[in-house]
Design brief:
There is one protein chain. About 85% of the residues lie in helices and about 0% in strands. The protein folds into two domains: about 70 residues; about 90 residues, Methane Monooxygenase Hydroxylase, Chain G, domain 1 (Up-down Bundle). One of its GO terms (molecular function) is adenyl-nucleotide exchange factor activity.
Amino acid sequence: MAQAKIQAKMNEAPCSKFSRTLSMADRSGRLLENLDLLETRVEALREAASAMEQERECILEMIQSIQNSQEMRNICAGEREELDLTANRLMGRTLCVEICVGTIRNSQQEEALRKATSIIDEMVKKLLSDMDGGRQRLLALHAACVSEAPPVPIDQKFQAVVISCALEDQKKIKRRLEMLLRNVENAEKNIKIMDHQKLEEPQANGSQ
């Protein structure tokens, strides 16, 4: 009888251990499944925040474009002042919205971002002193960030720097260059319009 009880206990031990192992595997699987779902939500959160960040940049750019537009120069001073106050109010409210999507970088990516930012900053300085030369430099930098073959020379050194940046930083660098291109195009249009008006003024005065 005693031997039968001992034999029964020996038979139960492996079964109970095997049962606990299955239970731990189930728990681990459920935890992993939850983490996978959370990872999806984290990525969705980052994408939504990034979209909001881009929307903020777009709104600020549009406000500045309206303030610097030829239409603003063609209205009377009183109306222009009122519109400027509205634009400045909208600008202030937009700037109060702070959105920051951080990027995890290694030391190589940190250094690459620093170099890329420095190169763009130098190009902006050139734009302020030499519009034509700065524009050509800007086009070469932007060409280094697009996948399709551009019709302008590519700055290959800058391209190598950008490739060394984190993927999110690459997207931000490209967006910054695209914004600068739009600003340059708008500035050139305004210069041409103002110059055309000056050329027309003597003719208008001569016809009176």
